[in-house]
Every structure is written in structure tokens, then in C-alpha cells.
Amino acid sequence: MAIFATVFLSSCSDDDDDAPPAAQAKVQLRSDAALGSILTDNSNRTLYSFANDFNGENNCTGGCAALWPIFYADDNLTQTLVGAGLDLADFGTVSTTAGKQTTYKGWPLYYYAPAIGGSNTPEGAGENNGEGIGGIWHVAKPDYTIRLLNTQLIGNDGKSYTNAYVEGTGKTLYFTDAKGATIYTFSKDKQDKNNFTAADFSNNGVWPIYETDQVVVPSTLDKTLFGTITVFGKKQLTYKGWPLYYFGADNKLRGSNKGVSVPTPGIWPVGIKDAPLAPVP
What we know:
mainly beta, globular, 2 domains, 2 helices, 15 strands, 3-stranded antiparallel beta sheet
């Protein structure tokens, strides 16, 4: 019996040694003391997103592409290959001139490879030196409630507008939700006072309130300038006292900012970092 037990246990041990190793997640989360929970690859290299990717496609070309190489996980990502705390449904793939690129919540993912000694060298594991560069590069995070998108304003009237809400071309860096849906303010609101939404929410489909009480923002924004108010029992995010909204006709489409011309330009401006403080009631 002793001989049999020894042989049996040895056989089990051999079988375990021959078993294939568990698949290692290709996208993971790392807890950073300054930035919170951020996305990394399976070597703990930080992943970034680009505010100019207004359409969910890679808009980093030329010299930009060398500085910010694309990240590609796998065509056939499974929940096993996505780390704990991440949802497989949030990932996708886009094609670029450099090959396929993995996206997260509609944002293409990149590495940072600064020029050192005349060549671009990918930053090491655990580093996040690309955070905030140019105000348009930020670490990818699973819990943002405000993102920044940099693109042309095109109203519901089909006309292009500048951030001064006159006709013209030029990108505006403005607030979006986690997936790139445009966030607006209402020029007739007062500090921490929503003057649009009806008590029965009958007009909420036109300008839906941005309903959250969580404040997770890029490091280039001052978190303390955000807050929440209660609007007929629901929580609405604010910035500098301005209540924040969606525009219903945008259908939360990434990069759509039709509301800037409704009913006339400047009545519903997009949320921006340098907005003035909301006036006191």
C-alpha cells in the first residue's frame, strides 16, 4: 500500500507539472498612490489614452506615433485575459497604419516612449511619466467620471464653432463622460442651482442631467472644483458650481457636440477647464 501511494502521488505530481500554466491577463490594474487605479499590460507598463482620439480611432501619427506606440492585446480577448476589476465588454480593437490597437471604453490605448539619447525608449514597469503631457495624454483608468476630448465643435445646425461660440474652426478641449459623450453647462444656471430640469423630469430627455456623485478626473483637472447637487432626488455632477448635462440629440455618441448651437450658440457651452465660476443666485 505504501508503494502504491507513493507511485500514485508521484503520478499526480507529474500530471500537475505537465498542465498548461494559467493564462496571464494581458490587461491588468495597478494601484498607484497618486493616480489611483490605472490600466497596465501584463508587464506592469502603464497604458494611456489620447484626447485627440475624438472618433475612437488612432489620431496619433507621424512623430507622435514614435513617442506613443500602440498597445495591442489580442484579437480574441476573453475575460480570462482581462484582469480582475475590468469588464471584457469595455474592450475593442481598431486598425491603424502600424497594426491593430486595443481600445478601452472607446479610447485607443498607447504606451509612452520618450526620446532618450536620440531614440525612443519605452518607459519601464510601474512608471507613468506620460500622465498629463500637453494636457491631452492621460493614464487609462477604469473609473473616470470626467474625461477630456479635443476636437472641433459642430453644432446641430451643421456649422463649425470655436470655443468663443462664433463660427470658425479649431479644436476645443472639453469634458466628456468615461466613454467620450460630451458634457455641457447651461448659461442660465446659477451656482449649484439647476434652472432647467423640471420636477417631473419631463424635459430630461432634451438635456439629461449628468447623474453621478463620483468625482474621478484626469490629474490635469482640479478635483476639488467638482461637486454634486441634488435635483429632485437625483445627484447631478457640477464643475465650479455649474450643473453638468448631456444633450439628448447627441445620443451619447463619442465626439458629437451638437448642443453648442441649441437654441443659439453659447446658451449651452461644453464644459471646459477654464470656465468661469457659476454666478451666485
